[in-house]
Design a protein that fits this description.
The chain is mainly α. The protein has helices spanning about 5-15, 25-30, 35-45, 75-85, 95-100, 105, and strands at about 20-25, 60, 90, 95. Strand 3 and strand 4 form a beta hairpin. Helix 1 (about 5-15) packs across helix 3 (about 35-45) and helix 2 (about 25-30) packs across helix 3 (about 35-45). About 30% of the residues are buried.
Amino acid sequence: MEQSFYDQVFELVRLIPKGRVTSYGAIAKSLGAGGSARMVGYAMSNAHLAHPTIPAHRVVNSSGLLTGKFHFSDPNLMQEMLEKEGVVVKNDKIQNFKQHFWDPLIEL
C-alpha cells in the first residue's frame, strides 16, 4: 500500500536529529514535490494526530522562522522544545540557522 503524502512527511520529520531543524521546502524537495512546501505545512498542522509522535518543533520556514508555533498547545512550546535541544531562538528566529539546518537530501 502506498503511503500518503502526509505519512511520508511524518516519516521524514521523525528522522530529524535532536538539535537540528529543517524547512518545509527541504522536506517537500526531498519527497520529490519541490513546489509543495505549503502542503508540508498542512501536514505539519496535523502532526499532533500522528502516532508515533513527530518532532514538529524541528520544522521551520526557509529563513529559520518558527512559523508553525501557533499549532502547538502553547505558542511558546516550539521555542522551548528547540532550546532544550541546544538551539538558540531570538524573536521567533533560529540563530545560526545554517549550522542547525538538516538537509534530508544530503544527510539521509
